[in-house]
């Protein structure tokens, strides 16, 4: 969870990385109470923009009850937390969520039961950014873009946010349009400046994306580039994995494992997709992949401490709050199943080269029905056993649909 | 070219299909004058929507000089024709290009040197269509969508357009959301009604698309589905190949060859892409593929008669008219190179199983610099040898940038 | 199951297709006893070649206990049936499984508790086939290839097999190497001859494949082409869906739905993959997709009668019989979950446009743990509750590893 | 070219990297004599294995005249050099090219006009390596694999090879089969040992590959992982880019640019593909991509010094030597066109944000017919103007086809 992040994580991670990753006793099966504890401690950050209308280039549909301003977006994040108990923070996006008084916004969030988490500068909404923001060949536009990020650092300081989450739409549409190496240099220069300005307890999350909106080359197209840049910046720069930002067939769980091992996994933007960056509900298309990602997280033990679990989805045709609650439930399901993996047996099967057995151990965990366990855990936490049904029956959706016209 | 299409094509195609596709003498190398004639006869239809602002889900940038209404869009199509000499028609999109008096619109087009070509109903821009248009589970919405297509049939009659070009955004985002077979039945029912209402000299072009804006399933996802539906409808229904609407790696030229062989290739929506449906300038990412597509068209000889060559692109960051002129030039380049293939030698190499020789014959044609030949042909047609440079020097772009604010 | 197929299916299908596909009462939830019955009736055919050593172009590893000849391969199929109770047939591949006396082979299969199912001609193993078999430009090689298929028709008659299963490695590696339309004509000509020679109660299954071993174009690359050819041949020609033979991201369940609706789904070659045609254990990479395929099958009701459920995998690093048993179990799991879908509720959610509810209904069925139910069903059938564990404990693997050196 | 590599490159690169990558005067258009000089200096290494029979998992066809042993393979490399003048080295693969006396082999190569270039250990051909070589869970197998690499280091010393080229087939086929992080640790441990054993003037080239023969996860799946490992090892470890080892749609030229910028591009394995790692003739499927790769190389100026240009292809259906000569010609064509790019104009267009102009500059260079220029250059070098035709007319192919039966 984002809020837990402090500069301390760096030291702890360093220690862990100096030790061998593998300790026999880490592999034992957790007890039921440990599993429950882990599930109760998994915190998921939802994004403010996910509560407003969004869509495709063809049409942004008006979804009944969608939030119309930053206050309604934060209120909705609060509602999701109230029904799930595991979404105590909400990410904001500047300038969409720009206000005069961030202290007041923070207070408003608090009144709605949540805190503000990661701060995300949007650098794609101005005419200036047509050919790039921090990689634009015009130095004035690059300066403007860096200033916009610096503003987010300042906002973060004001609201005690520990995460600066950076995604850049920057890239080119045609061969020759931009100079790839030159743009990378501008990118590194810009981020170096921002990094220096960050307080010690802030981490920079660097997101990568294969394509879209740039169609020929994207300045940070893959984890390798994000990792390379983060490594140059320093220990507080990490890679943000958006599950939809890969080529079809990419083994995302392996990327997660490698970044964990290198101490550079900053967090996730969860969503699912069948083709490109479809931004569908996490686990709705390939639930096994989501499980396998959590399998790496669980397996990594303490190396996974401090990861930011965030949602980044665009509910273009479905109601916003129900879609977000369903997302949270799917993530919990994947995590619960990953916690059930018999790691001792798995370790043994791997050591013995028993392919079928090793694979079956994962499948067994995945095939386990965890809905009852999750219901029980939720009730222990004081939230509804089935958050989605509870929400739908609460009358809240009807209320906001009536209010927000 | 669309305008040439009449009911006669069907009979002619039938005859051709009854004969063997292959006649020795069809394979001879065309003479220079034949090549020139072929290039002068290649007509490319540009889309009205391509002259206005468009973009991605992240941002629609304001491109200086972009057309602001249907009249400016048609004027721009006229400008492209004036500089290239091969774009005598412009496709319209309803309701974007809706006017009260289509006769007057036709006259206006005529004054700008062009005619109106294919009529395209847009069925994705209304709130009603959130869960589909002609495949919506609500019969009232299906009826509304069919009525919108029928309106386009009527418009086509008024302006003597012979092409009804159909692309549907219909599909679902999640497993279970829709009933795949039921939706296909609704689709076929709707199109059967439209087909019956079409005049005899109108053809229905059915477009397919892998994904977007639907992210889990699209009702017409591939050429197989479009072909299947067209076959059920009758001889005036054909498949429209948009070069960007395939999975990465798809052999599009093979699809073109098969549809030509079956007499079901209605036409093209040209564009290029690196990842998904990026709608970039045709030939800008993979010029060899564009050449290989034209190679199949040339090879098919008379089977290729009556194909509609249309452009469907979204110039999100570049000036509209220059981008369209460049597109037309790239298409001509690919066609010119395909005309240069030594088909007799190729046929012999294929018969002898000489893999390297056969492949080299295509490569030789592709490596030939055809820019001078094209310049000559253009001058013979009374248009500038280099349409792009001529346009840029003409002052027209500056003029419209000043006028259209 | 293949053995059930007779000419009668055609008539029955025709009737079904004449009726509307949708009847309200088909949508009710099946009873537990019906679910059990359905699961006991699902028959899966295993391939003889799956029991011998196979691998990649880099290495064919020697798997301990792998079958060394056709008799051992059939015996292994018998073993899989003995432990699972649902694999009563084995597909053979000619010339790999060529024998002098097919009657004797049939008897031998019978002694091992199985019957011979589909007959598959292999047309890629001879030097002659370097540039194609039935699409080779050399007519003598085309004739040879057709004769090899005819031989399989004859074998099928001798052993009362009702399925001729056709996959062609034919295609080209380079642009220009072959003439796409000409090759398609040769293909159609060859299959027409075979079709005419088939007895009335034999069905021709036509498989398609995107690529490999041909790397530029494959003569039957997609379901559209296979469907087109089958349609021309007649009612006994159908499409065979190999789950690994698609571009990444393809919605295979939609193809299944369309083919069912058109009465042209002949059967499956099950396997799984992450990248290309990896031939991994079905359900091992994307179990949700396998479930969604079965969801279409169950939903289609009587339209699904007579489908051939076949396995086509290459266990390159894991023991053969355990891998096959695990495969069968995974297929049963997917089918069991698909049977649990509440189709009445789903239908209602779809009609109401309730996206989240509709999707949740599928997810609920998928998240249900069906292992106990399957164990019970197996015991009712007189086979072990856990066939894999039972096999591993039976000592059979050790026995064949010792015998087959 | 590999042979030029010495420890000096490291120092030179370091200097270059310390300077800005960009110097105005580097951008000027080269003179014709400079272009000719550059083309004459481009050296391409061919692989010994490319001259013997190889194929797919379905069939290894016997290609007439294919080399049968290491001596014939080296003789064939010599033949390719004799006709092209730019292939002075041949890569060897151990154990395929294992001999008792490497000094004698070196002499034999010299007699055939070539030298031995990179040494490649094959670590996939033994039964031991079924579950991995240097990432096998069995320490004895890991040691064996490391010993095999060490042997190659020793061979390299004996024959004064400066390149140790490493590709690992290692990976897993199923989720759970292996422990991703543990395997990465073993990998790093193994390579660290090898790196320490390398002489100062040897470079380690680390190749990555998305998939195949491992189908679920490959231990070095992408450039990011190869880069990460190389960075840990030291300045003599670099990344090897095989153009076929990426997901479809990957912007390979961007990877090349980034690695050049970071001083970590070791070299290439050239080939082309449409789907997966098809190992087709370089430039036969996407010649524009090959040009764009060389565009980055040319643009990088001195940063590109010392790159190893190597071919890695599998000519499964075409004659070996002609296929290799055609490959070399295609690579020269791409390089020649890249040298023609007007970098000053391009730089200006990029600075001005003129998308169409910048793209057109690349297209213009690509559309230029360079066949005559290349013919002239070849004649100046004393080799045939058209090496392929000259070879085919030389009678050499007939000779080896007769001799090698």
CATH class of chain A: Alpha Beta
Q: Which chain pair has the greatest contact? A: B-C, 60 and 61 residues
Could you tell me how far the N terminus lies from the C terminus of chain A, measured between alpha carbons in angstroms?
Answer: 34 Å
CATH architecture of chain A: Alpha-Beta Barrel
In round numbers, the mean pLDDT of chain A is: 93
Number of domains of chain A: 1
Largest sheet of chain A: 5 strands, parallel
Q: What is this structure, in a nutshell?
A:
Chain A is built from 15 helices and 10 strands.
Can you characterise this structure?
The structure is a homotetramer of 405-residue chains. Chain A is an alpha/beta fold. Chain A has a single domain, classed as Divalent-metal-dependent TIM barrel enzymes (TIM Barrel, Alpha-Beta Barrel). Helix content of chain A is 46%, strand content 11%. Chain A is built from 15 helices and ten strands. Chain A has helices at residues 8-18, 32-41, 70-84, 102-111, 139-159, 180-197, 223-233, 252-261, 287-299, 320-339, 343-352, 355-367, 371-380, 387-394, 396-403, and strands spanning 46-47, 89-94, 115-121, 163-166, 171-172, 203-207, 217-218, 237-242, 265-270, 308-311. Chain A has a five-stranded parallel beta sheet. A three-stranded parallel beta sheet of chain A has the order 1-2-3. In chain A, helix 8 packs parallel to helix 9 (287-299) and helix 10 crosses helix 12 (355-367). The longest helix of chain A is centred in the middle third of the chain and has 21 residues, at 139-159. Chain A starts with 7 loop residues before the first helix and ends with a helix. Chains in contact: A-B, A-C, A-D, B-C, B-D, C-D. Chains B and C meet through helix 6, helix 7, helix 8, helix 9 and helix 11 of B and helix 6, helix 7, helix 8, helix 9 and helix 11 of C.
